[in-house]
Design brief:
The chain has 364 residues and is α+β, with helices and mostly antiparallel strands. The protein has helices at 3-7, 57-77, 124-140, 159-172, 182-189, 197-203, 244-255, 273-287, 293-297, 299-319, 332-349, 351-361; strands spanning 15-21, 29-37, 40-49, 89-90, 99-101, 104-110, 115-117, 210-212, 221-224, 230-233, 240-242. The chain has 12 helices and 11 strands.
């Protein structure tokens, strides 16, 4: 089916006059659509949903529609602008959140003008702004019933399940690599008890179940080109029930590394405590008093856990023959594992300082 014909299945304003690939996402196929509405240009984002990754499109889109509708109500109540402060789905002509045909499943968002998604923080203020955006995201959804969300990727941050998969990979050793990574295997085994912490606290309801974003990288916050301030949290595909420790932790894992995720020279890899403080300050300002004292006290654990989990996943994939993560050379996943474990070690050494920073900016 022609892309223009697909666009016309939605309640857009005007006639599509320009369609071009957009962004650098690795999961969905994204297009920028320009429409002529009686001489006025309206722009939209069209995405073909990757149904290999997201095999239940109905559940995925139900999550997104429910959360964005809730956010719009809260933004309006707070005197904000719902057209730019949250993603806005354009419904199909028959009122659905997506269109499905033999070519695949498609959705359209309104394009948020005069914003940019940054790949790296140009300064600490930008990272503080991202922290604010993700903290405010939690606050705005504080009263949303997370238990009603569809689990798009089952056991995504179930570290117990991730650890068991790791143990299975070690035991089977299908590509005979285990002997060459005994130090890395021991690194995981020495921290095995940590895998139970957040999962157990959620199951016992000691930690509140919340709406979690699950991909809290800097480039999932749109920044105003005019003010440099955060405008909107985007990429809601992995919205699921979980703990805010997951989102805080993954943001720290991805944003506070002094090196690249696949930097082979570990002398260039480390945990930047100043960036941690910037993000934490913003996060605490954004979330306000909608964080429990226990969540605050475990923010450092969330950062360590998400980094440890990621490193364990890279190591598991290396042991299984690199079947999940795309690699560019045979040791790529092992190098990625090393960077994450270096970050874990640094954070463990600085955990008291991390806790001190969390308390410093806490509103509870």
């Amino acid at each position: 089916m022609d892309i223009k014909d697909i666009v016309k299945k939605f309640k857009i304003n005007g006639e599509p006059i320009k369609i071009e690939p957009y962004g650098n996402g690795h999961i969905n196929t994204t297009f920028l659509i320009e429409c002529d509405n009686n001489g006025m240009i309206c722009r939209y984002i069209l995405q073909k949903i990757n149904t290999t990754v997201f095999n239940n499109v109905e559940g995925l889109m139900s999550n997104i529609l429910g959360v964005t509708s809730f956010l719009k109500e809260r933004i309006i109540a707070n005197g904000g602008n719902p057209d730019i402060e949250t993603l806005n789905l354009v419904l199909t002509n028959d009122g659905k959140s997506y269109f499905e045909c033999k070519d695949g499943a498609y959705r359209i968002y309104k394009f948020i003008e005069n914003t940019v998604a940054l790949q790296i923080a140009e300064d600490k203020e930008v990272f503080e702004g991202a922290g604010y955006a993700f903290g405010n995201f939690v606050k705005m959804l504080n009263d949303y019933d997370a238990s009603g969300l569809f689990e798009v990727i089952q056991n995504f941050h179930n570290t117990q399940s991730r650890f068991q998969k790791f143990i299975n990979a070690v035991d089977k050793d299908i590509v005979k690599r285990a002997d060459s990574v005994r130090d890395e295997i021991d690194f995981v085994l020495k921290r095995s008890a940590m895998c139970d912490n957040i999962v157990t606290l959620l199951e016992s309801k000691t930690l509140p179940l919340r709406v979690t974003h699950n991909d809290t990288k800097l480039n999932n916050v749109l920044i105003s080109e005019e003010t440099g301030k955060p405008v909107c949290v985007i990429d809601l595909d992995t919205i699921m029930p979980g703990s805010l420790l997951y989102d805080f932790g993954d943001a720290i894992r991805s944003g506070c590394n002094t090196g690249l995720e696949d930097e082979p020279d570990l002398t260039k890899v480390g945990f930047d405590i100043e960036l941690f403080e910037s993000f934490t300050k913003g996060f605490m300002t954004g979330i306000g008093n909608c964080i429990t004292p226990l969540e605050r006290d475990l923010l450092s654990l969330g950062a360590i856990m998400m980094t440890f989990e990621c490193g364990m996943r890279f190591l598991t994939d290396y042991l299984e023959g690199d079947t999940y993560f795309k690699i560019h050379y045979p040791e790529h996943n092992l190098v990625r594992c090393h960077t994450q474990f270096k970050m874990v070690s640094d954070m463990e050494n600085l955990r008291d300082k991390m806790d001190e920073i969390a308390r410093k900016y806490s509103k509870v």
